[in-house]
Design brief:
The chain has 190 residues and is an all-alpha fold. The chain has 9 helices and no strands. The radius of gyration is 16 Å and the shape is globular.
Amino acid sequence: MALRLPKAQLPAELGETMVKAFGAVFEPTEVLWHNPEVAVSNQEFAGRIAAWHALDESLKSFAHMAVASLVGCSWCLDINYFQAQNQGLDLAKASRVPDWRASDVFTPLERDVMAYAEAMSVTPPTVTDEQYGDLLDVLGPAAMVELTAYVAFVNMAARNNIANGVSSQGFSDSCAVPLAGRPATGGRPA
């Protein structure tokens, strides 16, 4: 996939901050910078979401990667796997998210969270009362609200990247455990 909009010139300080933290400037930010108000609002909201802590970080990471795999956002999958490594999350598990249904490394809760993330991400959404209620019973109201809002934001970001032609920048290439490929069904729930 090629960018559908050329990269805009970022303020030098912003580019330097990204390079210092991640080794590269994020292409989604460079594309969004054609409208700095949109780019800054997106970054601010992403920053606020990162500060939420009612839901376990591993569950958020798995939910994000499940959405990315399902909708086909290679950039999201790439950066989230890279961040999982940097956050000290279980890479053996994180590497299997693209093919989580066929993998035996996930707990029932992790599977339920990824299934919920996918159910929110298909069109139309297929979340059931039972699915929501089961997760609510285990996670509690605060974490359930966080999971739902988080998955909604991830969908916005992933679909924005796909529509703009943003694809993987190779962040996950530095991870010790290779990232699993998407299943032949394109990540769609069976």
